[in-house]
Design goal:
Length: 145
């Protein structure tokens, strides 16, 4: 009950020069047999990313891919949400307005994914659906072509 009183009231403005940042979309998350594979969580996110990438390319919006370099001592971070939160927070702190596409996100457990999306939306990003994003991009940037 306290969250609505403190957070989520301010909305970030979508900029005039957007870029779609794909954060660590590793094949391992979508490859059957790999230890990181999570079909119920990552297949939908993969489909959503492909859909948004196609729309961005159609509208000549930049698409940026990031990746994580793992430590050679065998340590690795396989929490997609942690990297997404870090990138989103960094973007906001550098003056960008980060928008996160709900369906394009996934993690090894739905509760982790949902909690992180809620927290980002309340404090430092706008979480939107794929449908909203595609419609908005068409309306705002489709006319410019």
């Amino acid at each position: 009950d306290n969250f609505p009183q403190c957070y989520g009231k301010n909305h970030l403005e979508f900029g005039d020069k957007p870029a779609f940042v794909v954060i660590d979309a590793a094949k391992a998350y979508c490859t059957a047999g790999c230890v990181l594979y999570g079909p119920d969580r990552f297949d939908r996110a993969h489909e959503s990313m492909i859909c948004v990438i196609r729309k961005c390319r159609e509208l000549e919006i930049h698409v940026i891919f990031t990746s994580v370099i793992y430590n050679t001592k065998g340590e690795r971070s396989d929490c997609v949400q942690a990297r997404m939160r870090e990138t989103t927070l960094d973007a906001m702190q550098h003056g960008f307005s980060p928008y996160v596409i709900r369906e394009a996100c996934g993690d090894r457990h739905d509760a982790v994914n949902d909690a992180n999306l809620f927290h980002m939306d309340q404090k430092f990003a706008q979480v939107r659906t794929e449908e909203w994003t595609l419609k908005y991009l068409d309306e705002k940037f489709g006319k410019q072509k």
